[in-house]
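Lab notebook, bench 4. Still working through the backlog of constructs that have no structural model yet. Next entry is a single chain of 229 residues. Request: give me the structure tokens for it.
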Amino acid sequence: MDADIQENLERLRERMARAAHRARRSAGEVRLVAVTKTVPQERIAAAVDAGVEILGENYVQEAEKKRAWCGRPVQWHMIGHLQSNKARAAVVLFDAFETVDREKIVLALQRQAREVGKTVEVFIQVNLAAEASKTGASPDQVLPLVRLAAGCDHLRCRGLMTMPPFFDQPEKARPFFAGLRELRDRLRPVCPPNAVLEELSMGMSGDFEVAIEEGATLVRIGTALFGAR
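Model written out:
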């Protein structure tokens, strides 16, 4: 096992636990998604051996190669933009999709999951900053997407995901994390009963502690775990 991966993971867990404690939350409420984009196979294996339980991948083809050799009981989350023509391959590979942002993707995932005979988890990605360079639904599009996903028998609508604008100071991202939590809390009373919206996927290597303080249940960590690419 790579010693630095083990040490990095231990430090990350300590930081996650302290952030949760500051927010008067249990450390067990927050899970780490290890972002494996461009990470060598041996370092991914070391992370899983060290205790990582969720791997986040951006591309279908890269996930296909990694799953072929991984052979370990981990969850795979799609955290990159999904094209509808890749939905079938993606449904076979992934357990959860964190970047669902339009009706076409919801219906494509439902259709392919039904054909494969599998139920997958979905998160609605929200573009709170309305950045043209990023995908994601606008806040007023979220409820219709949640309702659509909730009506699909092979999808489980688990929560929301966001990527705030890049800031060199984590505190500047706080309003966006708080905004996602507040949006989730507003939607819960009017969502279908089976759309529980338990999860908030937000926060990365540079700002995950602020995200946890604002309610994140999943943090997507690459650099802080694997080192600079």
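Notes after review: Strands lie at 31-35, 54-57, 75-78, 96-100, 120-126, 155-162, 199-201, 218-221. DSSP finds nine helices and eight strands in the chain. Flag for follow-up if needed.
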